[in-house]
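Ticket #4471: complex job returned nothing on first submit. Input attached below:
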Amino acid sequence: MIIAALLPLCLFLFPLWKITLEAPQYPTPLGMYIHINDFSDANPHDIKNINIMNHYVGMKYIPEAIPEFKIFPAGIIITTILGLVVAFLGNYKWFLYWFILMTVLSIAGLYDFYLWEHDYGHDLDPKAIMKFTNPDGSVMGFQPPLFGSKDILNFTAHSYPQLGAFFLALGMALSMVAYVVGKKARKLVLKS
Amino acid sequence: MKNLFKGLATLVASATLIVGCNNTGSQGNGALSSSAAEKVYVAPGEQDEFYAFLSGGYSGNLTVYGLPSGRMFKEIPVFSQFPTSGYGYSEETKPLLNTSFGFVPWDDLHHPDISQTNGELDGRWVFVNGNNTPRIARIDLSTFETAEIIEVPNCAGNHSSSYVTENTEYVVAGTRFAVPVPQRDMPIKDKKGNFKGALTFYKVNPDSGRMNLAFQVLMPGFDYDKAHPGRGDSHGWFFFTTYNTEEASTLMEVNASQNDKDFIAAVNWQKIEEYVANGGGTKMPTQYMHNVYDEETHTATSTTINEVLTIDPTEVAGAIYFLPTPKSPHGCDVDPTGEYIVGSGKLSADVTVHSFTKMMDAIENEKFSADAYGIPVLDFEAINAGSVKSGGLGPLHTEFDAEGNAYTTFFISSEVVKWKLGTWEVIDRKPTYYSVGHLMIPGGNSRKPFGKYVVAMNKITKDRYLPTGPELEHSAQLYDISGDKMELLSDFPTHGEPHYAAGCPAELLAPKSKKIYKLEENKHEYATLSVADTKVVRNGNEVHVYMAMIRSHFTPDNIEGIKVGDKVYFHITNHEQDFDVPHGFAIIGANNSELLIMPGQTKTLTWEPKKPGVWPFYCTDFCSALHQEMQGYVRVSPRDSNIELSWSLGED
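Support reply: We reran it on our side without changes. The output follows.
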């Protein structure tokens, strides 16, 4: 359980998510890593170049910082401390509660990410250079996928979790393992 | 019984395999050797195996080609103004073309040589010579741009240049036209004995590549034609061919061709270096310019130097000897081992080869046949290793492969002849189209040649391509030399007049080729690193426009308050940081050129408006879907108007 609680800290070392944009003119695709406290270029100047591309359709610049960059790290530190407390107390039931808490928070995080992506892809400058409409006449949005790949005009956008997210998932899985093992041990104690 | 069958079956199977292999093997080779097209075909999206840097001769520039395709990738402006990029027109690059004769916007570029370490190509820089107004330039092989140009004082016709020693310790400049040193007003007919031929050695800084004139050997007034460094055992020596040892000054085609033998001058630069280190040499007043381009300021500066250290060759014991070589030798080439010095008597049928070992022996045993102005002339028989009797006519230049073969061009008989070093036997010969000058094997003048292709660069084109009126591009031929016999693969036109060329494997340069200039490293005096810093500043009748450009607009794009008679400097910074997104800048009536500005770079164009009005400027490089919209206006008012300077972007 200690390991389970500590693994999410890897999010400070490794990115959580990556969005990649492929197009014929970009033999090296443009890419952006999302960390819990930062956006970073996959290759030098990628974010700047994504912004230049996006300004044609009126998308906002990718901000330097968003409030989540403060909330997410705090959340991770708090849940890690909680996890460690739970681990030291050693009550296996709390392992499950910690897992549930982490699941709820992760889903909330993903939902937040989705909302941001939606806003980023739909809140377009009315003076956009190029305006595209869907077949039904509504304004075309440029929201990248939450998970998976999607064609957006000349680009193919990919959105996939990165090492940080895997460590988070591994930590959560370990807490479940700890719970199951703890439960079995408890049963054994009871039986004997 | 079963086992026996199994054994038999295996035998049959392996026999079939062997036969099968043989069949496919020979068929494969046969098919390959028959398809020249396949060998030069580089499929779409794939890249060439070698870079080739071909001199542009009277274009003054250096062209970059790919081999085996023969496709041209870039023309690098060196000694000539180049309106395509604004080179030599922009305020930043004008200083590169400064000389002691003033601004000289053209030259005749002959002999590229790639820098070496331990006798092997290291791909840091390529050095080229300017023949007419003697200069040497250094091109940076991470940017493929001219980084430095230094003038050669006391020289005229910088032809035996710009070859490097095997660790790029020095790059040399030898004078083709003997002249009075120092220059003075005197009768031409008094040339003999009174002119000098300067051989100049520039020390190359091993880190920055910057050149500094170390010393200049004032040789007898012959014509110093071509040169190459010693390597291996002969490292420390430099060899220069001479012609016109008659010292004629008129009707040279006859009068300079009278001596049966001219010389190859062998110069021990290590001895001279030592002599200089011990305080030797005489400082002579002179004037030459040293122009250096700084990649961070994106700006070149010129410095005038007023002194040169000269060396009297008779004062340095054991440093300089003459090797008699028949018939006005032109090419002077040293084989990869450093043992053989090949002199091509251009009026001869034969190629003369000297042995370095024999030369050292002759020096030690003082086997001298004469002396010329106090410089010992070694006995021809004592140093001669052999000669190649090929039956060709007019040998010019020789390159080498890694298997002990040499390839010599014959101008008059228009062919490349392959021969064996040591035995001097001719192995193969192939015609060229027509009248070949230089040839080039990548690394063919280093310790480590890449003997896969040879490029022959011809002087005469005639009917090789569709006619384009009286003036034609020159023609090159590519031969496969990986087998015993050379195989002609393709023809391709070359720009200007290629003389020598230098080539190297693509992987030596491609990975370190710069993609952009980093904006945060831009230290240009007038750089605008943020759009917030864009402005227009008046200083008397000088107006400085601090402008930024990014897809797809200029900041500012409306400027008012400029007056007739102003001198307007557009200092434009390209804010892009993506590979291959240059922007151009052109303004109506500019008396210079456009600018082509690379991502992260700042360039300056000067504009002197002559008429009141509203004048447009625009981006010349199709940069994006909104390229046509990348434009702006400058309002020019009469000289006496009092309209205040103002500038804006996106304000209605």
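Strands of chain A lie at 17-23, 26-34, 39-41, 148-152, 155-161. Closing as resolved unless it happens again.
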